[in-house]
Amino acid sequence: MGKLYDRADIYDLLENEQRYQIVKRHWERVLRGRQVQTLLDVSIGSGNQTLPLAELGVRLYGSDLSGPMLERCKEKAERRGLSVDLRRSDFRRLDGAFEADKAFDCVASTGNSLPYVTNGEIPAVLAQMDRLVRPGGYLYIDLRNWDRILETKQRFYLYNPTLLNNGVRMNLVQVWDHHADGSVTFNLLYTFERENRIMQKEIFEEHYHPLKRELLLGALERLGYREIELMCFPAFLDSVKPESAEWYCVLARKQEASI
Length: 259
Ligand SMILES: C[S@@+](CC[C@H](N)C(=O)[O-])C[C@H]1O[C@@H](n2cnc3c(N)ncnc32)[C@H](O)[C@@H]1O
Description:
25% helix, globular, binds S-adenosylmethionine
């Protein structure tokens, strides 16, 4: 079975201009009234969740484990005439990729990426990210609502069919297997069809360690973060409570350096 992030072309088939504009509006709402001129996304992937920031005047940096995803991100940035500084790195070991003295206004992990590591590793990953945040800066994380997924033992996640430029219709179905050890495998089945006949299938498996809100917020507080704000994703949907949203984000402020 192939690996999803080796097929950044397939991963990106859900992306379109409308989603890009939604993400841009999301960031406008998240950053409103906040001093964020530089942002590092440590799981930038192909850039879907953070490339629009470069259009909002933020100096964007990104790292990721996957070479093909970074390559795709670079191509997309070039196509839009945007600038992004990309490095290959595991977010469990960020020190080498970004000089220790580089202090970003915000360090982010986007796209539900932290649950790729176990709950036990989360405090150390946040600490790695924290080292790159300037005093008074921010940590930002967006996630699927794992509390809700675990409560409902949700198994199926269906996407609307997508009509691709070449007239092919793509369907994506996810089936989630909940394991006895608490981890969850997402089985992703992509089918490509023309005139109601499937002509190509692609199957991928992604293994996650559900990350509950309490664990994340507790770890941020222990790192000294304050003004921790939860917002639904996208954040401009003010009326949707993050606790009941399908996807939400957390923005937390690092304390100013004491004199
Ligand atoms: C669902 S994708 C999200 C990508 C992008 N943020 C987006 O929203 O499109 C998850 C990303 O996390 C990356 N990833 C997984 N484990 C990682 C790790 N330990 N360090 C850095 N990146 C990692 C994958 O390579 C992949 O690009």
